[in-house]
Amino acid sequence: MKCRKLPNGNWECYEEGPRDPYTNKRNPIRKQAKSKTAAQIKVKESLKILESGIDGRTANRVFFQETAAEWFEVYAHSGVKKSTLRSRDSTVKLINRYIGDMLIGRITHQHIQDMLMDLHRKGASKSQITHVKVTANFVFVHAQKQRLRLDNPVNLVIMPKRRRTVEEIESVEIKEKYFEREELTTFLNAARDIGLIFDEEWFYLIAFTGMRAGEVCSLKWSDIDFEESRIRITKTMDSPGAVEEYELTPPKSHQSIRVVDIESDTLNLLRRLKVRQMENRLKYRKATDNYHDMNFVFCRPTTGYPYSAKFIYRRYLRICEKSGIGKRDGPHLLRHTHITMLTEAGIDLDTIMNRVGHSDAKTTKNIYTHVTKRMKRNAPNQLKIHYGEIFGKFFDA
Asked: Tyr recombinase domain: from which residue to which, for each copy (predicted)?
């Protein structure tokens, strides 16, 4: 590398770069700085970019939103679910509002950091901010593959976090993530007595099988084996808009594909429901030519179309309101309650996770740990209840 001091006091360094693949001529690299060392560093950085094959000219003409659109086109054909695509598309639009009109080669980690900090200040949830960071990372990885960038600025950002207060930590206990026995009884009684059609059945099914709401909505009669007392779970429901626009998609993960054994009460509940559904189907198939006869366990009486998970969520909130239950997080609390039932019954953690379709679920493990600790604390009392008479006779002797 050759360097010389300029009349203005600055230093200029010069180095021959790699040959241009189109002209076969070498690309000369000249950089100036106030010090010789700084100028040398600039030359080395430029040389590194050229040797890596980065297309600097294109990178300085392409905007982030163009690269994001190109990435999304590839991502859309990678086999992801439509619901995931809608979520990613929404996130890309959000990111574009911050850096969409910036050149892909000029974006620094500070631009990404500022975006995340602004979302944090505006009250965005941790999951939303994480989604933004992950999506931006996807786009910049694509830019690296396209030789538009040497580095990925997302790798240098720090996720903003809000410190929880003592009051928040103490108020949000693990027991708020599931129903106690009395609460479950109150909720299911309300679903039966004051609920609408199917409220009793689908909430009972979630509580006593651990199924997700989307899995319940996608359930067909062919998935239920009445002879072997089991339910096969292979799909979930995606309902983005109108009732008729539903789509059956693969479940959340490979572990979600499973077979769940059911007890006699659940089986009898489903048998009674099937009789009602058959009578209803005969009635409305005769009344209309547009009846959607796809054999769904839970379908709208007059049309045959399935329900959405959002509908079950709204029904859950309504039953909670009517019954005075304050745990309004959603029907997944019934799923968590199923985990507590299995834990109290002495079922091991691996079996529980297989039954509810989890491979590594933090909430499942937390609930399991919480319940087992409670069981250990109650062990002496249970011992006294069952064997107190013997203890009494022994010490009285």
From this structure: 174-381
